[in-house]
Amino acid sequence: xxxxxxxxxxxxxxxxxxxxxxxxxxxxxxxxxxxxxxxxxxxxxxxxxxxxxxxxxxxxxxxxxxxxxxxxxxxxxxxxxxxxxxxxxxxxxxxxxxxxxxxxxxxxxxxxxxxxxxxxxxxxxxxxxxxxxxxxxxxxxxxxxxxxxxxxxxxxxxxxxxxxxxxxxxxxxxxx
Length: 176
What we know:
Residues 103-169 form the Ribosome maturation factor RimM PRC barrel domain. This protein is mainly beta.
C-alpha cells in the first residue's frame, strides 16, 4: 500500500497503559466512525505497515484509544509514538453536496459566476490558517479561498466547482 492510495487518519500521540495501548489524535470531524476498525496502516520510515487492532474505542473527544495486536508493552509502544496512521481511500465515507475531500477535487475546473472558467485546481494549500485552492490558468497561478461564502456548487459529474470570488480577486491574477 502506498501513501497516495491512502488518507491520513491521525497520529499516535502517547502511551495509554503499560500494556502497550496508545492514544491517537484523529484528523476528522466524525471520530465515532473509526471506533470499530480492524486494522490501520502505520507509517514507519518510508513504509506503511499494516497493524491489526484487538480493541479500539473513543477516548475523550477526538482521541482514539487503540490496543494493537503487535504492541503489548511500553517499549514497543514507544517505537510507534509520533507515527502517522493511514487508511485506504476507499474507506472514506462518501461526501455529497458542497462537501468534498481535498484529494477528490484535484483536476476540477473552477467556474466563477462572473469570469467563467478561471483555472484547473492543481492542489490544495492547507498549511496556512485559510485553506486555498491552487489553480492554474494559462500558465498563471490563482489562489482562491475555500469558504462556504465562495463555493456555490460542487458538480462531481462535470468535475467543476462553481465559485463566487470576491470582486477584484481574479483580475489580480489573470490581468497581470
